[in-house]
Known about the structure:
Blueprint: E1 32-33, H1 44-47, H2 52-60, E2 69-72, H3 75-79, E3 92-96, H4 112-115, H5 119-125, E4 128-133, H6 136-146, E5 150-152, H7 166-170, E6 175-179, H8 189-192, E7 199-204, H9 209-221, E8 233-236, H10 241-250, E9 252-255, H11 264-272, E10 276-279, H12 282-288, E11 295-296, H13 302-306, H14 309-320, H15 329-345
Parallel strand pairs: 1-2, 2-3, 3-4, 4-5, 6-7, 6-9, 7-8, 9-10, 10-11
Helix pairs in contact: 2-15
Amino acid sequence: MNRSEQAKPAAAHLHCADTPALFSIQNNDLGIKLPLHLKQMGAPEHCGHRSGWRHVMDHLRQCQRPAGMLLDDFVERTFQHPGSTQEWHEPWIGIFHHPRYVPHWYDPSAVPSVIFQKTTFRNSLKHLAGAVTLSTTLGDWLAKELVVPVKVLKHPTEIPDQQFSINQWEQQATKTLVQVGWYCRNSRAIYQLRVPDDYKKVHLLQDRPWVHNALQRIDNLSPTRHRPLIGDVQVIEPLDNPSYDSLLAHNLVFCEYLDVSASNTVIEAIARNTPIVVNRHPALEEYLGIDYPLFYEHLDEVAALLTQPGLIRSAYHYLGALDKSWLSAETFTRQLMTFVNQIGTGTTK
């Protein structure tokens, strides 16, 4: 990338430097206990993300102490599945990931209000000392619903060497719009989307049973299932990290969310200054800013956005100027540990 392309080198000081080895808790920190006996959503064989929650867990593991505060790093993982008997009977802090309005038809077990009615959760709620969310949109609701202190922390990620180049993108004769990710979004949106003649559509699709099950629910139950399918879509399988980084460094990203609190796809686009065309949502405004140029309200607006190279260049420079200090997993961990200490000492407001 030419230096003249980047509007602001805001992320340079974060450049993949916040590895777990650099983080250690202080002697006066309470520390945490992680329920590592549970299936970890951040496990490499499970999440399929470039960094994802696994990246966060690598840092949180450095903060474990035998007498630390119990930290359930993925509350929905613990309580949502049928047959789960796990309960917490000591003071604990929970990190809540799922957005409030996961459609019931999409995954009835994942709806927060459904999880909160489960006996195992209600028994554990008696001991819940605090909650962490990845957006204020979710946090404000949880504070009222659970009546506990809530800390909002943005989801961190790594910043790779490969960054989006607007100059290289503008020189491409055929441009690519790639749909990335699957959870709580319209996975058929890329197929229903009309694009300009100089674009091709690509779907990065994980070949996993739960992803295909979600796609079936979209096809059979989604309110958008009656939209016509338009044009061809190239389906590609999951990529290794260098190939994934290259994909996001050379192409625009596209998503249509059903609901969202935090999204790895959006975060990874921000980390690379990759323009992402995405439906407007309050939680995404928290991450991208209310004035982000490539928000759309309706799917039929996308084609017009893609015909405006100046708008896409504006989105690129807009992303380059964002404060990215929150992308650091070390910053996330330090802020989380401060909250844990406040809960443990009773000093939260």
